[in-house]
Design a protein that fits this description.
The protein has 290 residues and is α/β, with parallel strands linked by helices. The chain contains 12 helices and 11 strands. A 6-stranded parallel sheet has the order 2-5-6-7-8-9, sandwiched between helices. The longest helix is centred in the last third of the chain and has 15 residues.
Length: 290
């Protein structure tokens, strides 16, 4: 771990990343890609110094409240969060300033902040987004070794359902020849239906690879799936997009299930929901008077 100085925490679109790097060890992680120009080891987490103060200053300058999103690049509930509690502190600022939030994670550590998530959701909207990759718990421990298992993430989704906090699932990635079976998809969709998720984001059934990400992924394939790297090379070469040969059938199952259950599944609809700030009229009036 090391600290670095930043002038801003929020992107113009309301995105917030408090950490750079991750210790979850997912074998397919795109954030390892060289294009992101991370100048330190991926597991040597960079922590943004004075993040809480910077965030509060930026929120106070905004003319109207909006949705703040976190987790797009680095999971806000990595192991360091247990000690530093930066995500927790920033959520407290977001709640105090009257903003909404959407959080993307793979970790059940988010349950430690359930009280503040409920407080935000009582004022405006808090959406918990959870990535689900494989229904097979043993496979999950291989491809996502240092993070909550799929069953543990499902338990988080159930708790959020019971607490009235809306949820969205990222159904990705699908690793060709590894977790691209109909059985796996049916298991994950059953979790989504039982948890009554609001939407599911799926950008096709496959994965992506580029410099930095590919080398790490292939090394892990050699470690856990002997011969699989050669199969990937034969099937995809150096392609960025690695689409499952089962893509068409999996897409049909996915769309049919979402339509039957009333789950948002078109990316534009899901992102539209995530980005829409919702609040009581009185809160909006207070902002307009300020």
């Amino acid at each position: 771990m090391h600290y670095a100085d930043y002038k801003t925490i929020l992107s113009p679109q309301g995105g917030m990343n408090l950490y750079r790097g991750c210790t979850h060890g997912c074998i397919y992680c795109d954030s390892r890609s060289a294009c992101y120009q991370m100048k330190h080891g991926f597991e040597d987490i960079e922590v943004k110094r004075d993040a809480v103060k910077i965030l509060e200053a930026q929120l106070k300058k905004k003319r109207r409240p909006c949705m703040i999103g976190t987790g797009a690049m680095c999971d806000p509930y990595i192991h360091l969060e247990e000690e530093l509690r930066l995500t927790r502190q920033c959520l407290e600022v977001i709640e105090r300033c009257g903003f909404g939030v959407t959080i993307l994670t793979k970790s059940a550590r988010i349950m430690r902040d359930l009280d503040i998530l409920k407080a935000i959701n009582a004022k405006t909207k808090c959406v918990v987004q959870m990535t689900l990759t494989t229904f097979d718990e043993e496979l999950c421990r291989i491809i996502e070794p240092h993070v909550s298992t799929t069953r543990e993430r499902f338990a988080v989704l159930e708790t959020m359902r019971d607490e009235g906090i809306p949820t969205v699932v990222w159904l990705s990635p699908t690793l060709p020849f590894i977790n691209d079976s109909e059985e796996n998809l049916h298991g994950l969709l059953d979790y989504c239906v039982r948890a009554k998720v609001r939407g599911i984001l799926c950008f096709g059934f496959g994965t992506t690879m580029r410099e930095g990400d590919r080398e790490f992924f292939y090394a892990k394939l050699d470690e856990h799936f002997p011969g699989m790297k050669q199969r990937y090379i034969r099937a995809f070469g150096n392609s960025y997009e690695c689409t499952s040969p089962n893509h068409a059938r999996l897409t049909e199952i996915f769309r049919d299930t979402c339509r039957a259950q009333g789950i948002l599944y078109r990316p534009e609809d899901v992102f539209g929901y995530l980005g829409k700030f919702e609040a009581a009229q009185r809160q909006l009036s207070l902002w307009e008077e300020a």
